[in-house]
């Protein structure tokens, strides 16, 4: 089991991780893919300032949101803009910071400005997100062989996002990334893949570098809106007679330490199938609830023995009473008995 839940949120951080009731639904929300439990990537248009001159030197930041929750996707955000505007536009003008220290409403307002044509953020900044569905995270971590752990999934998402930006012709000179595990090892791997770019991998990069802060906002607002999309499949008239209930009120932040989340999980669990594609079944929270006595139905799937397993042709073999030599081809009598040449 991935040790991610040992890094769970402290109770005082839950309000900051809970989606805003009126979260901005960004273009990075692909409703059908989210409801289908599929992972996907979204890229904004290349900003006007950069598209007019692709030789413009840019700075790029990457961060994630939703690493620890049992509900909803994990989202990687990428953000880039001209190097000369890095701190003046992001930190001084718009006050981007680590998304965990910004209020849900302020995060949402920053994302809305970023997606609104005509604003300085829209004209100068590009961004992208990789939505890693709970279903795909779980299936990777629960593989019977060759487990695809969360760190490996996260690193692949980061590399693919950066490669996409280079493929668009963007002149990225500096990259800043919030670390996964050991910063030095992670940085060396990225330097081998992107040898012509200055790369910095650091702990707390989302509070040190404005481009990483902006990436964290893109990731967090996208995750919040994705949670809202997932939750609406459960918001019935019985749950809210006057108007649909928001995810913030129903299952809260999606973290196991959030009482709203665990209460919702217990109250909406199918005894055999558990929950839908919004749940990370590889998390111990979900596993324990399913296996708890009196609340779950355990299914033991038989393990086939390759040495004693039946062949497809075993179903076509004949019995000893039909007079056919069992040493002959097992399929020979499938369409009838062999006919002697004398008949013709």
CA-to-CA gap between the ends? 69 Å
Strand content: 5-15%
Low-confidence stretches: none
Task: Find the structural class using helix and strand composition.
Answer: alpha/beta
Number of strands: 6
- If helices are DSSP runs of H or I spanning 4 or more residues, what is the number of helices? 14
Question: Largest sheet, if any?
Answer: 6 strands, mixed
Using the alpha-carbon principal axes, give the shape. globular
State mean pLDDT (0 to 100 scale). 84
Strand order of the largest sheet: 1-4-3-2-5-6
Secondary-structure element string: HHEHEEHHHEHHEHEHHHHH
Evaluate the radius of gyration: 27 Å
How much helicity do the residues have?
25-40%
Cofactor: Mg(2+); Mn(2+)
GO biological process, one term: DNA replication, removal of RNA primer
Function: Endonuclease that specifically degrades the RNA of RNA-DNA hybrids.
Catalytic activity: Endonucleolytic cleavage to 5'-phosphomonoester
Q: Mind explaining what this structure looks like?
A:
The chain is an alpha/beta fold. 35% of the residues lie in helices and 12% in strands. The chain has 14 helices and six strands. The protein is globular. The model has no long low-confidence stretch (mean pLDDT 84). Its EC number is 3.1.26.4.
Sum this structure up briefly:
By secondary structure, the chain is α/β, with parallel strands linked by helices. Helices cover 35% and strands 12% of the residues.
Descriptive labels:
344 residues, alpha/beta, six-stranded mixed sheet, 14 helices, globular
Layout of helices and strands:
Layout: H1 14-17, H2 31-35, E1 40-43, H3 48-51, E2 57-65, E3 74-82, H4 86-93, H5 104-114, H6 120-124, E4 126-132, H7 134-141, H8 150-167, E5 171-178, H9 183-193, E6 198-202, H10 205-208, H11 210-231, H12 247-250, H13 259-267, H14 284-291
Parallel strand pairs: 2-5, 5-6
Antiparallel strand pairs: 1-4, 2-3, 3-4
């Amino acid at each position: 089991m991935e040790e991610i839940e040992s890094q769970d949120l402290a109770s005082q951080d839950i309000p900051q991780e809970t989606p805003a009731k009126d979260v901005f639904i960004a273009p990075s929300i692909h409703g059908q893919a989210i409801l289908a439990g599929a992972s996907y990537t979204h890229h904004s248009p290349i900003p006007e300032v950069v598209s007019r001159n692709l030789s413009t030197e840019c700075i790029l930041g990457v961060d994630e949101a939703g690493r620890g929750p049992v509900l909803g996707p994990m989202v990687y955000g990428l953000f880039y803009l001209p190097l000369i505007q890095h701190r003046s536009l992001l930190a001084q003008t718009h006050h981007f910071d680590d998304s965990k220290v910004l209020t849900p409403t302020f995060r949402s307002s920053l994302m809305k400005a970023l997606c609104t044509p005509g604003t300085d953020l829209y004209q100068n900044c590009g961004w992208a997100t990789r939505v890693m569905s709970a279903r795909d995270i779980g299936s990777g971590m629960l593989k019977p062989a060759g487990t695809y752990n969360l760190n490996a999934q996260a690193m692949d998402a980061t590399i693919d996002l950066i490669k996409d930006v280079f493929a668009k012709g963007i002149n990225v000179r500096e990259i800043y990334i919030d670390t996964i595990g050991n910063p030095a090892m992670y940085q060396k791997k990225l330097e081998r893949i992107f040898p012509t770019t200055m790369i910095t991998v650091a702990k707390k990069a989302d509070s040190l570098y404005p481009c990483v802060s902006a990436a964290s906002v893109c990731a967090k607002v996208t995750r919040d809106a994705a949670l809202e999309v997932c939750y609406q499949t459960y918001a019935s008239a019985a749950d809210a007679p006057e108007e649909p209930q928001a995810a913030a009120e129903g299952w809260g932040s999606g973290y196991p330490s959030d009482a709203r989340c665990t209460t919702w999980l217990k109250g909406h669990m199918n005894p055999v199938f558990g929950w839908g594609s919004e749940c990370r079944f590889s998390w111990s929270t979900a596993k324990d609830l399913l296996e708890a006595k009196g609340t779950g139905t355990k299914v033991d799937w038989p393990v086939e023995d390759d040495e004693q397993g039946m062949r497809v042709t075993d179903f076509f073999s004949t019995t000893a009473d039909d007079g056919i030599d069992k040493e002959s081809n097992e399929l020979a009598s499938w369409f009838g008995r062999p006919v002697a040449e004398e008949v013709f």
